[in-house]
Amino acid sequence: MNLEVKLMKNILGANDEIATQNRKIFSERGVVVMNLMGSPGSGKTTLLEKTLALLADKIKIAVIEGDLFTAKDAERIERAGVDVIQINTAGGCHLDAPMIQKACAALDLDAIDLLIVENVGNLVCPAEFDIGENFKAVVLSITEGDDKPLKYPLIFKESEVTLLNKIDLLPFTNFDLRAACEDLTTLHPTIKIFETSCTTGAGLGEWAEWLLGKAAR
Amino acid sequence: MNLEVKLMKNILGANDEIATQNRKIFSERGVVVMNLMGSPGSGKTTLLEKTLALLADKIKIAVIEGDLFTAKDAERIERAGVDVIQINTAGGCHLDAPMIQKACAALDLDAIDLLIVENVGNLVCPAEFDIGENFKAVVLSITEGDDKPLKYPLIFKESEVTLLNKIDLLPFTNFDLRAACEDLTTLHPTIKIFETSCTTGAGLGEWAEWLLGKAAR
Q1: What is the domain count for chain B?
Q2: Which of A72, A122, A169 sits opposite B147 (nearest CB)?
Q3: Which phi and psi angles does B163 have, rounded to 5°?
Q4: In a mutagenesis test of the B interface, which of A144, A146, A198 is the best target, namely the one with the most B β-carbons within 10 Å?
């Protein structure tokens, strides 16, 4: 085992310990946590804005925004009227459990039903780090292509739900919806799939309803 | 300095040494190397197919394909009739210099003018690793949104050229082309920008011409 592998194990071990602590605290405080992942530009922040608009009067939601730099996304989410904490990774490619632990110190967890963590835009690294969430969700936009589940399998295996987003652009692409759904269920037989568009509103009601069910469990 | 930072420095130091060796070999053999980066689904492989079709009778090109898993992209490129080596990172989020060194052992560098390395689909990690290339290029698709240069600045600072790809989808998005170009040139004043579409063919001729100039230098 070379140094790089050994260190990665140390890093992941330390991360998992804090993730377990986070999970315990979330459970004690009655907060359900979703780790929302996807490529840059898959539409995570816009989807989040629409989701907040649909759910904000039904449950108490807070958001943690992960970005390399800038607070652009946090500023957008703040306009939806929910508490939001921005984490800047200063170039780092994913959020980890210690970052979430620190961010949560600034949140009143007792006043929250659902905490949504929007991870750094990246279809690879975020899937490897447990942050103490209850479940992971991945947004795949139609314009990214139907080959992505097999090319980036870990994130789809780890996620309880996939949102096939920007579904309104389907007619302008060669995306094979049936093939993508087959690949997704091959990778992850129980995966839940929603087809959504933040432009037309398609699928957003069903998605929000499902998320509400998760938060109320 | 904690263990994680220390190790990252070791990893990068070892990588940079081999990148320097790679660069020396490429220079001796007269091979120009482009490191092609971008998000998953930004259109790198399709752009590469179109580029090969335009340039294959003018210069000798070989391709190294980086993917986490599968040889799907290498199979597509092979159909274009050029030599292609697939690197599977087994989940790793970027290509590094040792991977390129190994892959090049299977290529006849003396018979190549231009080596194109298609990196793993990721707008973060590949930008941090020198592989010994002459220049980096980044593909940003219109559907990813105009906020990406400021949110992922390193990759745009590091790249000599940005391809604003899927430009045919501009009318169906709220992408602000002028704002994106302004942000790109603020980050990187000498950056070259092409607007391309592999669906309509827009911009591909100018891009191929520019690349030909780089390879012939």
Answers
A1: 1
A2: A72
A3: -105, 115
A4: A144
Could you read off the pLDDT of B166-209 as tens digits, one per residue? Answer: 999 999 999 999 999 999 999 999 999 999 999 999 999 999 99
Q: How many A×B Cβ pairs under 8 Å?
A: 118
Residues of chain A with pLDDT under 70: 1-8, 217
Model ipTM over 0.85: yes
Q: B76 is in which domain, residue-wise?
A: 2-216
- Neighbouring C-alpha atoms within 13 Å toward the C-beta of B132: 25
**Is residue A203 a contact partner of residue A197, using CB atoms and an 8 Å limit?**
yes
Residue A41 has its nearest CB partner, among B70, B91, B144, at: B144
Residue spans of alpha helices (H) in A83-192: 97-104, 148-151, 153-158, 177-187
Model confidence, pTM: 0.94
Quick check: B123 and A4 CB within 8 A?
no
Which of B40, B120, B124 shows the shortest C-beta gap to A120? B124
Confidence bin at B26 (pLDDT 50/70/90): very high
Mean pLDDT of chain B: 95
Q: Which residues of A touch B13 (CB under 8 A)?
A: none
C-beta atoms of A124 and B68 within 8 A: yes
Q: Show Cβ contacts of residue B96 under 8 Å, excluding neighbours closer than 6 positions.
A: B15, B18, B129, B131
CATH number at residue B161: 3.40.50.300
Q: Report the chain A residue with the minimal C-alpha distance to residue B125.
A: A93
